[in-house]
Amino acid sequence: MPKTVKMDAEMQAFVNDVLESIQQAKRGERRVHHVTLTVAAQARDKVGVSQSAFSKLLGVSLRTLQEREQGLRQPSGAAQSLIRVAQAHPEVLRVLREPVSTKGCTTQPTRCFGCLRGLGGVVRPAR
């Protein structure tokens, strides 16, 4: 003879929910969850990099970026500006990921933007 177990209402509701989920799975029914990405997550997606790489580009720790993507933390004003740039012009952050080459540079590398691929060889005026 099977032993009966007394359950409180909360446990009974949980068991019923699990049984219903199993029956839905057997019938081939699926639940669809829609997730809205945070601004930080959208920007990282547009740049096309990992969380680790994006956190380095932004100059923040990986954990800080994760908290921003989860909506647990809001970026500062400067970080918000950089995230807006990443969303509008992801190619700018992609260029920053590329190694700097001083090959063929006639000025000091710290004064020449021409060494960065894709920026058209713009040189800053000397101060």
Automatic annotation (TrEMBL):
Residues 42-93 form the HTH cro/C1-type domain. GO terms for molecular function: DNA binding. Gene3D superfamilies: lambda repressor-like DNA-binding domains. It comes from Giesbergeria anulus. It comes from the Bacteria. SUPFAM superfamilies: lambda repressor-like DNA-binding domains. Transmembrane segments: none annotated. This is Putative transcriptional regulator.
